[in-house]
Write a structure and sequence with these properties.
- By secondary structure, the chain is mainly alpha-helical.
- The protein has a domain at 24-62.
- It has three helices and no strands.
- It is elongated and about 55 Å long.
- The termini are far apart.
- The model has no long low-confidence stretch (mean pLDDT 92).
């Protein structure tokens, strides 16, 4: 009986499918990351832009 080895993509798919269930992770940030991953747009630039939008939405411009 062997356990199948997951590919990198399968590991990432599992991680981003469960990111909202990880304790102590901000739900808004987790949702943004999961959405970017699902849209195949998880890049450093897009993450920075989304985090900036969240900061501005929460009243923190810096």
């Amino acid at each position: 009986m062997t356990n199948p080895v997951k590919s990198g993509k399968e590991i990432l798919d599992d991680f981003f499918a469960e990111i909202l269930n990880i304790s102590d992770v901000d739900s808004a940030i987790a949702q943004c990351l999961a959405d970017l991953y699902g849209q195949n747009k998880l890049t450093d630039t897009n993450v920075k832009n989304e985090l900036q939008k969240l900061r501005e939405k929460n009243g923190n411009k810096n």
